[in-house]
Amino acid sequence: MNVPILSAVPVLLLSWVSVPSVSAQNWSIVKDEKDPAMQILCDGMLVTKYHCENVPRPFFYPVIGPGGEHLTRGYPMEWHEGEAKDHYHHRSMWFGHKGVNGVDFWSEEQTWPAGKKPAGAKLGKIVHTGFGSMKMGTNPAQFTVRNDWVGPDGVKICEDARTFTFTKTPAGEFFVDWDITLKAGAVPVRFEDDKDGTMALRVVPGLQLVSADDKTKKSGGSILTSEGIKDQDAWGKRAPWVDYFGTDRKGQAVGVAIFDHPNNLRHPTWWHARDYGLFCANPFGISHFEKKEKPEGEFVIAAGDSLRLRYRFFLHKGSPEQAGVAAAYAAYTLQK
Length: 336
Fold this sequence. Notes:
Helices cover about 5% and strands about 40% of the residues.
């Protein structure tokens, strides 16, 4: 049976066509009429889905590791045994920030219990405005998108262009690269000094240090930074990379690291690395991480100017040492 699928080696404008199913050792995208998300497959197996329709901000879910199991939490998209139903806005793998020109692009209405929404909170949305080019087929796969950052009054604050690149390694592991260019229009764009942001991931329980419902209960996961800082001590520290590792639902040893590109703003970045499974690269929350006065971490993109940020997610087998995370990061730094 034919399914809507896009699989091609040259760069194409993103559109859906009907062709036979993918061949082996091939990257492809499938768009099912019953599922608004784009499915990204490698060798015919799902790696992730890109959600950008009728959502508060685009995100990838699920994110499948080299063992064939989820590496990111299902809630609030769906719920799996052992997952905490907290932080409604932690949508698997995403990019956002709590304060941008006074608007919150991190939280959602369901973030707070009924009647607990902070007075004056202004929730914005990152709205998908279009796809650009695509390269599918052999390694690496890639596609581009455009988004508007829109306040609750419907006024656009800024826009961004993103390039996503997917690579399968010889060891059967995966790199997922985010290359984001934030663009200011006629007015400056102020990223406020806040810990809640920015390049983010929420992992499955087996990679958490503790249970989100009971912090006294260990979950079996571990945290390691490139500087050798471990577990709870990683929060608020600066490092080129951070890795969460443990086991997936089948008990397989797996992990996921985030790499901060050396050309990024304020590299090496600070890490909002929580023991319950959230970790984020955040170059803006300096007052929180270093106990300094606000607005120490604030950054303003001048009118008509832009800011480029790049990150790599390494979905790997075993521990950081077994996966060679340090060497993988060194190779990433060579990308201009």
